[in-house]
């Protein structure tokens, strides 16, 4: 199985809720109701397949082995012949890891509501996949590993990932006179969809929650810097959006770092605004200001880039 070449023997076999208990577990993770019965059926198919069980044991072990450690591995590439089981396989990995991450959260004194809202991102990602592909699955299975390894937390409107400053961003931060540099802890800010408008008030509340949360629950890690790497920080957006738009006001929170010569990333705004990064540019809708900005810029021959920003915490 490509992606598990260095995997050793798991310390214990993975445990899944039985078919009767699984629906309540999935509902607690905000899995859409329409996906419950098919996932219960897939559980039976997985449990009867020796190869899938072998892989489940090792993937769950990879998630829980270094619980709380920053930086994890990559998900393996699953056989195309697995079809829907392959697209949904990591739902079962994270369900099997659920009690481990909950125990880690309890050990850190993390409130139940923060734990619940963080892990419920599993259901949101199933909705993201359906919007993009029209089917059940997870577009980027690795991403949810951050949640289930204790690296990322949903605090109000925004998500905050425990991370370290890389060489280029850390260099830019240090050059600005901020007392941090490459290798120092930072909080990576992520903006999710399906969570309402990105208002300044919602962002202020999230940042206030984050300052208190990490100081209380991770006191050994001193987070003095927030960073963000997103197409939402592309300065070109200011050409199309008014100064009082939520996106422009979000950009103003950050000190822009260099793009470091990175190439275009046109697929990112298409994916996040329209749901599917493979949509033809010519037919992108123009219903909102952001839709018009993204599509018109591309149709005019322009490109979008991932912006990189930071600010002191």
Description:
Helices cover 46% and strands 11% of the residues. By secondary structure, it is an alpha+beta fold. The longest helix has 24 residues, at 84-107. The protein is globular and about 55 Å long. The mean pLDDT is 94.
Radius of gyration: 20 Å
Q: Helix/strand/pairing class, anyone?
A: alpha+beta
Q: Helix tally?
A: 13
- Major sheet size, sense and barrel closure: 6 strands, mixed
Descriptive key words:
single chain, 313 residues, alpha+beta, 13 helices, 6 strands, 11% strand
Describe what is shown at a glance.
The protein has 313 residues and is α+β, with helices and mostly antiparallel strands. It contains 13 helices and six strands.
Please describe the topology of this protein.
Blueprint: H1 22-28, H2 33-47, H3 50-64, H4 84-107, H5 112-119, H6 121-133, H7 143-148, E1 152-155, E2 158-164, H8 167-175, E3 185-191, H9 200-217, E4 225-230, H10 237-240, H11 246-251, E5 255-257, H12 267-274, H13 289-299, E6 307-312
Parallel strand pairs: 3-4
Antiparallel strand pairs: 1-2, 2-3, 4-6, 5-6
């Amino acid at each position: 199985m490509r992606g598990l070449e260095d995997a050793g023997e798991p310390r214990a076999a993975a445990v899944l809720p039985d078919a009767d208990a699984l629906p309540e577990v999935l509902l607690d993770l905000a899995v859409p109701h329409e996906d419950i019965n098919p996932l219960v059926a897939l559980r039976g198919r997985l449990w009867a397949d020796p190869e899938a069980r072998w892989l489940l044991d090792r993937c769950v072990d990879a998630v829980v082995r270094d619980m709380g450690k920053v930086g994890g591995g990559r998900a393996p590439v699953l056989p195309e012949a697995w079809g829907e089981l392959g697209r949904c396989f990591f739902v079962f990995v994270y369900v099997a890891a659920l009690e481990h991450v909950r125990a880690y959260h309890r050990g850190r004194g993390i409130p139940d509501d923060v734990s619940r809202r963080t892990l419920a991102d599993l259901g949101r990602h199933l909705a993201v996949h359906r919007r993009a592909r029209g089917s059940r699955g997870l577009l980027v299975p690795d991403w949810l590993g951050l949640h289930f390894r204790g690296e990322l937390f949903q605090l109000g409107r925004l998500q905050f990932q425990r991370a370290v400053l890389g060489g280029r961003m850390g260099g830019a931060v240090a050059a600005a006179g901020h007392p941090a540099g490459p290798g120092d802890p930072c909080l990576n800010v992520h903006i999710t969809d399906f969570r309402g408008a990105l208002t300044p008030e919602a962002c202020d509340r999230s940042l206030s929650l984050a300052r208190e949360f990490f100081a209380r629950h991770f006191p050994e890690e001193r987070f003095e810097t927030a960073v963000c790497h997103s197409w939402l920080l592309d300065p070109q957006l200011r050409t199309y959006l008014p100064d009082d738009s939520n996106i422009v006001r979000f950009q103003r929170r950050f000190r822009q770092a260099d793009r470091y010569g990175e190439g275009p990333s046109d697929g990112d705004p298409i994916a996040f605004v329209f749901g599917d990064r493979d949509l033809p540019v010519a037919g992108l809708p123009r219903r909102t200001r952001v839709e018009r900005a993204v599509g018109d810029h591309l149709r005019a021959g322009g490109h979008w880039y991932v912006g990189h920003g930071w600010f002191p915490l």
